[in-house]
Amino acid sequence: MADSNSKLLRGTFVLTLATYISRVLGMIYVFPFVYLVGDIGSALYSYGYAQYTIFLFISTAGIPAAVSKFVSKYNSLGDYHTGMRMYKSGLIVMGLTGLLGFTILNLLAPILAPIVLGGEDAKNTVEDVTYVIRMVSFALLVVPIMSIQRGFFQGHQSMGPTAVSQVVEQIVRILFVLSATFIVMQVMAGERVFAVGLATFGAFIGALGGLAVLIWYWFKRKPYLDEMLAKSRPQTDMTTKEMFKELFSYAGPFVLVGLSIPLYQYVDQLTFNRTMIENGFDKDVSEGLFSYVTFMVPKLVMIPVSLATAFSLTLVPTITNSFTSGDFKLLRSQIDKTFQICVLLVLPAVVGLSVLAYPTFNALFEMSAAGGRILRWYAPVAILFSFYSISAAILQGINKQKFAVVSLFMGLILKISFNSLFITWFGEIGSILATALGYTVAISYCFWMISRHAGYSYSLFVRRTLLMAIFATVMALMILLIEWLLSFIVGYENGRLQSVFVLLVGVGVGAVAYLYLAYRSRLLEVLIGNRISFLSRNRKKAVQ
Q: Is the CB of residue 72 less than 8 Å from the CB of residue 317?
């Protein structure tokens, strides 16, 4: 049990580190990019990228994550041949679906463009959006193939290839985006639309970099994989049809759950501009706010969520292994530790981001009261994104993926039903409130199903969460106090440099306060001390 927990944590921390690096890089490049193309260019980028995200999930059809689960299942039975058969067949399927997705997105671009613009041209025209959608569609030719290779390695509980390829993909993409945008806008004094189109094309260039890393890992690991095949028990007597039938039974829920955040954002794509304009907002103002809600602020908010993403990737094969072997005690232990570590790391990030919302937005993007207000409201939603990602992964790991799908539709129906109404009542904040409502209901349902089908009790998790909430409250009060004291000397409202100073001091004070409380209470030792030696202390009294 200890070895399995250690493997869960080791794999999770590897992916967490890589995902955090990717998220941070994905956030940092936004600042110079927004400076180069402006709010309107950022909105244009968001219009194109949202369509690509939806089509990417459809093109992969959940198969990469399903392959991870499939390979893990048959590896636990000692049948390595069946997992290899699935991998090779899946590569062909992913290549074909990627090509199909690329073709369809190109054909649909002129139809989707006027819809996301709210029915009529603003500063961005239908032709602009069509062009950007077509440029980003090239990534569909590569990403599905890359994704299935990651799924195969994860099925072997090897997270290194995924981690390294993620970081390389992001670095290559960002270097291309910023260099291409700078050359077009500053050197050539070219069109903003052309620069944004090249920026979205960066997804294709980055994917090539990530794919190259995975191919290198494949050749490096091939002798080991061949050795496993040589020791494998005889493969199960499955036809190709039966094999894909089982795979697709996993894949459907994966694609739907993976689409949760993109689908919620797509509801905003279809309704935000239209509703804002109908309620008297100028088209250009609406596009600027749309850029805040769908592009700038989510880049910051999704950094804490990347922890849950890493957990989800690690959970599926690990939970599947425990469930298949019938070790429910280990299964419940893995669920418990995962939930608690998620709160330990995500909650303070969310609270700190919300409290420091105004200086954060001013320091990283531009001086904007609207941007700070949107970030303050959006930050708490990160905890909902995180728990939905993790709880859905747990349900998939215990073969109850249908409940994850039900939860998705429950939340999405609420988002669709209330989005325009809430935007009418609360302005741009309304879309955030509708998202929070949908995710809250979805998570509540997932938690109920986990308790019912895994026999999991939330009592210890609730106690620990209350303790961490107290620590986060103390942290927030310390940040507010230091912010108030600094206001006599320097105010974040006075400029970007002042905002940077307030932000750095606030983050430093908040981090020290939270970590000190978590350390003194032995919470860090109990949850992650076995991975970090200096946290382990011999004390009789433990956190309860």
A: yes
**Averaged confidence pLDDT in the chain:** 82
DSSP 41-88: HHHHHHHHHHHHHHHHHHHHTTHHHHHHHHHHHHHHTT-HHHHHHHHH
What's residue 415's pLDDT? Answer: 95
Burial class of 195 by CB neighbour count within 10 A (0 to 12, 13 to 18, 19+): buried
Structure letter (DSSP) for residue 534: G
Give dist(CA 177, CA 198) in Å, integer: 7
CB 146 within 8 A of CB 217: no
Encoded tokens for 401: 């993926």
Q: Can you tell me the distance from the alpha carbon of 208 to that of 103, in angstroms, rounded to the nearest whole number?
A: 19
Contacts with 257 (C-beta within 8 Å, 6 or more apart), sequence order:
392, 393, 396, 401, 404, 405, 408
Contact 51, 295 (CB under 8 A): no
Tokens of 493: 């409202």
Place of tokens 């997705």: 101
Cα within 13 Å of Cα(9), Cβ side: 17
Q: Where are the domains of the chain?
A: 2-535
d(CA 180, CA 187): 10
How many Å apart are CA 350 and CA 160, to the nearest integer? 28
Report phi then psi at 259, rounded to 5. Answer: -85, 0
Find all residues with CB under 8 Å of 74, minimum gap 6, and list them.
80, 82, 83, 236
- List pLDDT tens digits, range 439-498: 999 999 999 998 888 778 888 889 999 999 999 999 999 999 998 998 888 878 777 788
CA 156/CA 466 separation, integer angstroms: 36
535: which DSSP letter?
G
Q: Residue 292 is encoded by which pair of tokens?
A: 């805040």
